[in-house]
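Protein entry
_____________
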Amino acid sequence: MREDSLKITTEIRAFIERYKEEDSSEKEYNDIALKLFKFQFQYNQPYKKFCQAKRKTPLTVKHWSQIPPIPIQGFKELTLSCEPADEVNAVFMTSGTTNPNAKGKNYHPTFEVWDRSMKYPFKQFVLPDCEKITTFVLSPAEDLNKNSSLSRYLSNAVTFFGTENSRFFFHENGLDMKGLAEALRECEERKEPVMLLGATFSYVHFLDYVKEANLQFKLASGSRIFDTGGFKGQSREVEMEKLYEDFAEFFQVGRSKCINMYGMTELCSQMYDQTILSSYLGGEVIVDKAGPAWVKTLVLDTNTLEPVEDGEVGVIAHYDLANWNSSLAILTEDIGYKTKNGFVLLGRVQGSEARGCSIAVDQLIEANK
């Protein structure tokens, strides 16, 4: 990597280490965000052209919230990488559920920042009450899908926080339902807490198996269920609350120990339900999502892309310092609203709601012709 890349990643790693358990000051975040914006403006040419089209440069931008968030469509249309794309260690690709022929790509010259950004919030939000836990994974590990950010995430979770009894149950032939059911029964008999970890729809298939086999489990106190991804692109819709009701009925794991992670290939950090953390700290079950100190979230008007007041619905933009090689500011296709505790997701931007996003995409493509 070039010297400027080594310098900025060293600063970001230090920021993450410093604020892995607490929030930073606004000034500290703003200072490093502006420094990262200057770096990306210099080395990420497609992003630079987009910013110039919006008349935003390191000379005019004085606050992190003024940094133009790049539409995630840009990750499909352009090569967004400060380091040469053909020299990176890994490329994560989106699933392509909307358009299989146009997958977004996120280039990773190193995982020094990515792994730290994953590790510390996972501990804070998922395991605030213990250091390690037996973990059963229902989705592909990294060895089965090198181009999946989720697969690396799941593998890291086991490496960092899993006990020696942790196992992966998704193999080349799919999910080993019988093996997972037997392993859960063993943990139940030993009264050993267990964490189930996987994509949301994996649980739908496993619950189908459990119901068909007339099985029920009473998992030990301290057990928890982690899901991510929702149901986009899946063959059938399932209400999330119905899924959590099934978790309580068939595994005896209540809502306070169920946690949904919100992440995307285009981001290097993740956000979480505060269910486990809030119930651990004060007994209240807060489902609003929150992230680490190096991520800021704005809700923007769907037409103007200007920030809206807390409680007002708009399109979500994330400012993630861990996104050092692409763009720290990402305009998602998700709508939601801010609360005093974090933010709430409502779904995907659709139809006329997407006007501001569509204009931003047009600006991005036009600037890079």
In short: DSSP finds eleven helices and 16 strands in the chain. The first helix runs from residue 3 to 18.
